[in-house]
Write a structure and sequence with these properties.
Blueprint: E1 2-6, E2 10-15, E3 21-26, E4 47-48, E5 59-62, E6 65-68, E7 81-85, E8 89-95, H1 98-101, E9 108-117, E10 120-129, E11 135-137, E12 139-141, E13 144-146, E14 158-173, E15 179-193, E16 204-206, E17 213-218, E18 224-228, E19 234-238, E20 247-254, E21 273-275, E22 280-290
Antiparallel strand pairs: 1-2, 2-3, 4-12, 5-6, 7-8, 8-9, 9-10, 10-22, 11-21, 12-20, 13-20, 14-15, 14-17, 16-19, 17-18, 18-22, 19-20
């Protein structure tokens, strides 16, 4: 089922499947979100949970037991329940089941909400520990933002704008899709001109950004979209490496893919989040569309 919210500035639609944002449309009809054309990528804005990226060999270990899950976990391919739908906000929930325990040995509740505030979409996540032991998880965003935003422009007309001057090196990905321990200088200043060549090595992954806002802007028009995410330790920036895709994903993460040589327990994974019995974890991000 598809749900919608609308105000004078924006209209959004969200699906029960994955609690996934499917459209962000401005009052003038401008679309700011990729449409999920499977020629490029079948998702639009998946939620990455209970981990971000790949675990080595798609397998991980908890307390001596081995579990298997594909890249980015199962939330993006799960049916959420819409538990509240008002004029201002939509709230979805995904709760542990006997089936999820077979691939992720923790009892949890994941709540995702969407709200409109003028020209901004506010997205919030809450993870609750429903187990009788601490639980471990990662969570991240993966919105595919339309690039270029204005039809008729080219990808190379666009650039990323950071709200703080950066001097940062990306973490290179190994052939397996896991992280290597090698870094390459990538950002120097407040802008990064876009071209498909910079994504030939897959996603740009950073663990030291000072910025908490990244915007997709154009050299030829004024329309832009900004993702604001405070307190996220890791960021990814991605578009398919074969070139031609009309979007860029800006991805704030609490957690990241395994390093290629990691073989420890899931609880020892770099960047993992520990949630005590009865506790809740909250995080979120905003998407602001500008004409």
């Amino acid at each position: 089922m598809i749900h919608s919210l609308q105000n004078a500035d924006l209209k959004i639609t969200v699906a029960d499947y994955g609690a996934e944002l499917k459209s962000i449309t401005g009052a003038d009809g401008t679309e700011y979100l990729f449409d999920g054309n499977p020629k490029w990528w079948k998702y639009t804005s998946p939620v990455l949970f209970p981990f971000v990226g790949k675990v080595v060999g798609n397998k991980y270990r908890v307390e001596g037991k081995e579990f298997e899950l594909p890249q980015h976990g199962f939330a993006r391919t799960s049916n959420f329940e819409c538990v509240s739908e008002t004029q201002d906000k939509i709230i979805f929930q995904l709760k542990w089941t006997d089936q999820t325990l077979k691939v992720y040995p923790y009892k949890f509740l994941l709540e995702i909400s969407y709200a409109l505030k003028k020209n901004t979409v506010a997205v919030n996540w809450t993870v609750k520990n429903l187990d009788d032991k601490p639980i471990y998880f990662s969570i991240g965003a993966h919105p595919a933002l339309k690039c270029p935003i204005v039809d008729g422009e080219n990808f190379n007309d666009c650039y990323l704008k950071f709200n703080v001057a950066e001097k940062s090196a990306r973490i290179l990905l190994a052939a397996s899709g896991n992280l290597s321990h090698e870094k390459v200088p990538t950002l120097d200043g407040t802008t990064l001109n876009l071209n498909y060549e910079i994504f030939k090595g897959d996603a740009l992954v950073f663990d030291d950004l000072k910025s908490d806002e990244i915007s997709i802007c154009s050299k030829k028009s004024s329309k832009s979209i900004t993702l604001q995410a405070k307190g996220f330790p890791f960021w990814g920036i991605w578009t398919p490496s074969n070139g031609g895709a009309p979007f860029v994903c800006i991805e704030p993460w609490h957690g990241h893919a395994d390093f290629e040589d990691f073989s420890g327990d899931f609880t020892e994974k770099d960047g993992i989040n520990k949630l005590e019995i009865g506790a809740s974890f909250n995080a979120g991000y905003n998407l602001t569309a500008r004409s």
